[in-house]
């Protein structure tokens, strides 16, 4: 049962990261379309936030894998 829960947790982490990065990308494109002169700052902030989201998703996936292999 714990392995099943770990698999669901890893899947939810991947889905959450995908949705979060997609929302950031869409918002960044919208912001650049509204203010093209701020494209560099928006793009830099977008990349930093996307990296942080990806790190959290990777951490969640590793924790789920550790739970599944512990049993």
Automatic annotation (TrEMBL):
Transmembrane segments: 46-69
Keyword entries, A-Z: ATP synthesis, Cell membrane, CF(0), Hydrogen ion transport, Ion transport, Lipid-binding, Membrane, Transmembrane, Transmembrane helix, Transport
Main location: membrane
InterPro entries for this protein: ATP_synth_csu_bac/chlpt (IPR005953), ATP_synth_F0_csu (IPR000454), ATP_synth_F0_csu_DDCD_BS (IPR020537), ATP_synth_F0_csu_sf (IPR038662), ATPase_proteolipid_c-like_dom (IPR002379), F/V-ATP_Csub_sf (IPR035921)
Residue intervals of the V-ATPase proteolipid subunit C-like domain: 4-67
Keyword Transmembrane included in the entry's annotation: yes
SUPFAM superfamilies cross-referenced by the UniProt entry: F1F0 ATP synthase subunit C
Membrane topology: Multi-pass membrane protein
Subcellular location: Cell membrane; Membrane
Residues of the site described as Reversibly protonated during proton transport: 54
PANTHER family: ATP SYNTHASE LIPID-BINDING PROTEIN, MITOCHONDRIAL, ATPASE PROTEIN 9
Function: F(1)F(0) ATP synthase produces ATP from ADP in the presence of a proton or sodium gradient. F-type ATPases consist of two structural domains, F(1) containing the extramembraneous catalytic core and F(0) containing the membrane proton channel, linked together by a central stalk and a peripheral stalk. During catalysis, ATP synthesis in the catalytic domain of F(1) is coupled via a rotary mechanism of the central stalk subunits to proton translocation. Key component of the F(0) channel; it plays a direct role in translocation across the membrane. A homomeric c-ring of between 10-14 subunits forms the central stalk rotor element with the F(1) delta and epsilon subunits.
Record family assignment: Belongs to the ATPase C chain family.
Protein name: ATP synthase subunit c
Highest classification ranks of the organism: Bacteria, Pseudomonadati, Bacteroidota, Cytophagia, Cytophagales
